[in-house]
Amino acid sequence: MKINFAICVMMLGVFCSFKTIGETNTTTTAAYPTTFVIGEHSTIFEKLSDEYSTLLLTACEDDMNIAFQEWKNVLSNIEQHAELNKFNLDGVKMWIKVFWSKEGQIEHIAFDLKPQSKKVNKNELVKLLDSFVKEYSTEEARIIGNSQFSHYGSVNYPIHKTSVLAD
Question: Are 92 and 150 in contact, with CB atoms under 8 Å apart?
Fold first, then answer.
C-alpha cells in the first residue's frame, strides 16, 4: 500500500508540472518590476530572459530590416519620451533589454549603465522608463509574435535620427 501511495504522489507531481497545450505561462511577470537595473536584480533578469526567450528577430520572421527598425524605433521613442519629460539622456550609455508581450506591448525594461556613461540617477532613470512603458501605445507596437519576445542591445544617447535611403 505504501508503494501505491508513493507512486500516486509522484505521478500527481509529474502531471501537475505539465502545461496543457496552448496554455500560456502561468507565472505572471506582473510580479516583477516593470523597469529595473540588471546588476541589482540579476535573478529577475535571468527569469525574465528565460520566459521571454524568443528573440525580436524571430518575432519579425527573421527579417533583419524589420527587427532593426523596431529596435531603433523603441530606442528613439525612449529618447523622445525623455525629452518630453525634461530628462537629458545625452551622454547616457547603457546595455538594455526590452521584453515584449506577444501582442507587441513592452512589459519590462532592464538596463545597466556602461562605465563610460554620463552619471545619472538610476532611480530617476527607472522612473522615466517606467512611465515610457506605461505610455507606449498599442499603435506603436507593430510586431506581433507567436510568443513573448525580447531583445538585448546597447545604446548611446543621443541617437541621430538620420536615415539613408537607397535609390
Answer: no
Q: How many residues does the chain have?
A: 167
Higher-pLDDT residue of 126, 136: 126
Q: Enumerate residues 6+ apart whose C-beta is below 8 A from 40.
A: none
Question: Nearest to residue 38, comparing CAs of 47, 27, 29?
Answer: 47
Inter-axis angle of helices 122-135 and 64-84, nearest 10 = 110
Q: Which H or E element spans position 119? A: none
The pLDDT score that the predictor gives to residue 146 is 80
- The pTM for the full model equals 0.77
Distance (Å, rounded) from C-alpha 22 to C-alpha 123?
38
Reading the block at residue 65, the C-alpha cell is 530590416
Number of Cβ atoms within 10 Å of the Cβ of 23: 8
**% of the chain exceeding 90 in pLDDT:** 66
Side chain identity at 73, as an amino acid letter? N
Task: For residues 55 and 49, give the distance between their C-alpha atoms in angstroms, rounded to a whole number.
Answer: 10
